[in-house]
């Protein structure tokens, strides 16, 4: 009788949610799993605010990793907060298990049934306060054991490839004492549960980097975000008490566990994990965690509804539903569903202190499940924690403009704004001129990564230039974030943009016989090196200057003059086809990017409705480098190029290859590609491609369905410049619904599927 009554209550509860949300189309994209997972590779993301969880059920235990934006240690590794394991007695999770990602409120719901006992567990993260809530509801009283598990209970020397998780990479011998150490956390039982935190030492990789790069004289003008950084939390639960410590091993890593056990079995229980980060002493952190916990308690009656409202607004703001009426599981339907799932992952770091990392975001897990040779701790991710790589990060953030998620862009913009002073000091110290010089791989304190900068720099080498065959002179990647700032309406960022432009204006003073800047030495991505007049740099400067001048009403003669001094793009010929050249000249090819098509994306010099479209299409089709570099994995952006050029079949093929189900249980955990799993620049470039297939703009003109297969039914809502939203439904090859806000912008629509 209890079993039936329990599930009857769940049925009523579920129906009430559905009845209240009949217009929540996003519910169709909820991900449902039946049965437990084998290991953490079968985890499901859950997040909010700046916290991310990986949740799964394994052998009757509910487990989750948790991480928070900005949790960098003294070596600049982005550390997990730990792992939580929950055991029930009697245990319904040993039988039939169901796990669902509920998109409309951002939660994960796990249910189980075994031996006449059932349980429903809802996990959600407060979007306004750093707190993880786990609400357990059983059909009968259940005992519970909640274990905080840590692999950082003792100092650990990091060796070999494992240093790719931090900023030393292959230069570990440059760390203090000649070795890299991940120092132990402080973990203990407290009155309310388990208290844990990691506190960074006074000497960090910041000090090593400043000295390496000859900046000791201006050290006081630089900021170390790592020194004294303290982050951690407290794990508590209703009716739980300390139950001693345990040891064990999960996959490749030994751990210690701090057990909280139930005083008695109960039907309903809440487990609460509250996090806190401060840059100060331990007393400051303790005061901070108490204040945060008090705020969580103060809002306990309203936080869940406020969080659900936030996610509801998120899904109403923008969406793409492919084949919304059929859900036929086809590759194109998968692409639409996975677009939503990946956008959810991006939404989980909406208020992060730092940007969503391209190499896993907040959702990495045990590395041997990505590469069996990497038997390291769950803190590992390839390409570092506090190192931001611009050509990868951009693909995470460009799609947020079309989805209208401007608030989510703030962490990335703030990262650059905080780094402006360091970039300007580089220009002043090394070359004696103004402007902000940003490098491609940039630490969270604004300087180049020390390993990439080069520890074997020969005497007399320009210390402002990285001694690195891939990264030397690659200074134009910041321009993409400049344009994002301007397109997002962040006029407060104009001084930052002007500083970036000033660097190029003052660093390249030489002019050719036509009065044009000579942009040498330069770089077209990491691919064409020692360039003269790289296409990516010219097109980037042109786009940023044009937008800046527009915003300033065309009255700034400095930037107008600079725009006129930009050199023209260069061209070459393949079998009679004129194509865009990657540069006027270059010395060598290092990588497999395609910067000769950057004038198409992101810079928009070429595209639908613009002159020279045939030249850009020729470049895509006939440039032998462009053809041999083509692909869909990782950061490859050929799908975006094809969409921008109106090549429907090519754009559809490559975008579907990007966004169709990945190889793991959670279908949007793609990768590792060229980086790591889950690969966020893989997902981001897929999002951009899908958006560009549906909507493109040229000035005030809005192209509808510029590269969309007529036989793909779709319902979408996307954003366009000038505070415009476009919602449209295409069914059976006809546009049945078109809503344009403001209505006056309807006259600017050019529908390419009439």
Keyword list:
alpha+beta; 15-stranded antiparallel beta sheet; 18 helices; 28% helix; disordered N terminus
Find the structural class using helix and strand composition.
Answer: alpha+beta
**How far apart, in Å, are the first and last alpha carbons?**
59 Å
Uncertain spans, ≥5 residues at pLDDT below 50?
1-22
**What is the beta-strand fraction?**
25-35%
Largest sheet: 15 strands, antiparallel
How much helix is in the residues? 25-40%
Helical stretch tally: 18
Q: Any idea what the radius of gyration is?
A: 26 Å
Quick one: overall form?
A: globular
Average pLDDT score: 96
How would you sum up this structure, described in words?
- This protein has 754 residues and is α+β, with helices and mostly antiparallel strands.
- It has 18 helices and 31 strands.
- The chain has a 15-stranded antiparallel sheet that branches. Strands 18-28-29-30 form a 4-stranded antiparallel sheet.
- Strand 7 and strand 8 form a beta hairpin.
- Helix 10 packs antiparallel against helix 11 and helix 16 (638-644) packs antiparallel against helix 17.
- The longest helix is centred in the middle third of the chain and has 22 residues, at 410-431.
- The protein is globular and about 85 Å long.
- It starts with a helix and ends with a strand.
- The model is unreliable at 1-22 (pLDDT under 50).
């Amino acid at each position: 009788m209890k079993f039936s009554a329990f599930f009857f209550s769940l049925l009523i509860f579920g129906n009430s949610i559905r009845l209240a949300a009949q217009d929540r189309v996003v519910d169709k994209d909820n991900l449902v799993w039946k049965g437990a997972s084998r290991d953490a590779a079968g985890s499901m993301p859950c997040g909010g605010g700046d916290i991310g969880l990986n949740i799964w059920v394994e052998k009757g235990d509910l487990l989750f990793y948790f991480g928070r934006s900005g949790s960098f240690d003294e070596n600049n590794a982005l550390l997990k907060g730990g792992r939580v394991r929950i055991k029930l007695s009697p245990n319904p999770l040993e039988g039939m298990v169901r796990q669902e990602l509920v998109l409309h409120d951002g939660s994960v719901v796990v249910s189980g049934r075994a031996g006449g006992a059932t349980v429903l567990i809802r996990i959600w993260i407060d979007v306004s306060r750093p707190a993880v809530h786990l609400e357990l509801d059983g059909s009968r009283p259940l005992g519970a054991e909640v274990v905080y598990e840590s692999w950082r209970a003792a100092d650990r020397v990091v060796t070999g490839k494992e240093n790719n998780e931090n900023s030393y990479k292959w230069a570990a011998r440059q760390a203090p004492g000649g070795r890299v150490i991940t120092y132990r956390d402080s973990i203990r039982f407290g009155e309310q549960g388990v208290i844990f935190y990691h506190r960074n030492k006074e000497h960090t990789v910041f000090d090593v980097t400043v000295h390496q790069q000859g900046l000791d004289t201006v050290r006081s003008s630089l900021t170390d975000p790592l020194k004294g950084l303290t982050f951690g939390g407290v794990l508590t639960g209703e009716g739980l008490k300390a139950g001693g410590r345990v040891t064990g091993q999960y996959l490749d890593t030994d751990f210690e566990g701090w057990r909280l056990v139930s005083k008695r079995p109960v039907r309903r229980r809440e487990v609460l994990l509250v996090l806190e980060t401060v840059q100060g002493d331990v007393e400051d952190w303790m005061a901070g965690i108490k204040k945060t916990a008090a705020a969580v308690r103060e809002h306990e009656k309203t936080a869940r509804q406020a969080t659900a409202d936030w996610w509801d607004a998120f899904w109403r703001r923008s969406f793409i539903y492919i084949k919304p009426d059929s859900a036929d599981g086809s590759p194109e339907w998968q692409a639409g569903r996975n677009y939503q799932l990946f956008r959810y992952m991006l939404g989980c770091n909406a208020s992060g202190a730092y940007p969503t990392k391209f190499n896993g975001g907040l959702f990495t897990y045990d590395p041997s499940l990505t590469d069996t040779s990497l038997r390291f701790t769950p803190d590992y991710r390839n390409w570092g924690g506090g190192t931001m790589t611009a050509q990868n990060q951009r693909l995470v953030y460009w799609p947020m403009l079309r989805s209208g998620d401007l608030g989510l862009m703030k962490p990335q913009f703030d990262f650059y704004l905080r780094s402006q002073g360091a970039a300007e000091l580089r220009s002043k110290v090394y070359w004696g001129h103004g402007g902000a010089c940003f490098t491609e791989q940039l630490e969270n304190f604004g300087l180049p990564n020390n390993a990439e900068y080069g520890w074997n720099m020969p005497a007399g080498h320009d210390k402002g230039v990285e001694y690195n065959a891939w990264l030397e002179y690659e200074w134009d990647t910041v321009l993409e974030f400049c344009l994002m700032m301007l397109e997002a309406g962040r006029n407060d960022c104009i001084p930052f943009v002007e500083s970036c432009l000033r660097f190029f204006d003052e660093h390249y003073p030489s002019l050719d016989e036509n009065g044009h800047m000579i942009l040498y030495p330069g770089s077209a991505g990491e691919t064409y090196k020692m360039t003269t007049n790289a296409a990516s740099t010219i097109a980037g400067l042109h786009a940023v200057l044009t937008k800046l001048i527009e915003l300033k009403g065309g009255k700034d003669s400095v930037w107008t003059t600079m725009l006129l001094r930009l050199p023209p793009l260069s061209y070459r010929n393949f079998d009679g086809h004129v194509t865009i050249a990657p540069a006027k000249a270059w010395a060598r090819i290092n990588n497999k990017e395609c910067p000769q098509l950057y004038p198409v994306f992101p810079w928009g010099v070429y595209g639908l409705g613009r002159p020279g479209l045939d030249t850009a299409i020729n470049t895509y089709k006939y440039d032998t480098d462009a053809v041999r570099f083509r692909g869909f994995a990782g950061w490859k952006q050929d799908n975006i190029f094809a969409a921008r050029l109106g090549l429907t079949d090519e754009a559809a093929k490559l975008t579907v290859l990007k966004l169709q189900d990945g190889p793991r249980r959670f279908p949007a955990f793609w990768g590792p590609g060229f980086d790591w799993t889950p690969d966020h620049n893989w997902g981001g470039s897929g999002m951009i491609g899908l958006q560009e297939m549906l909507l493109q703009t040229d000035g005030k003109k809005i192209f509808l369905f510029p590269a969309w297969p007529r036989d793909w039914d779709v319902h979408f809502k996307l954003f366009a410049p000038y505070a415009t939203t476009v919602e449209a439904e295409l069914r059976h090859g006809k546009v049945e619904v078109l809503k344009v806000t403001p209505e006056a912008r309807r006259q600017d629509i050019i529908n390419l599927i009439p």
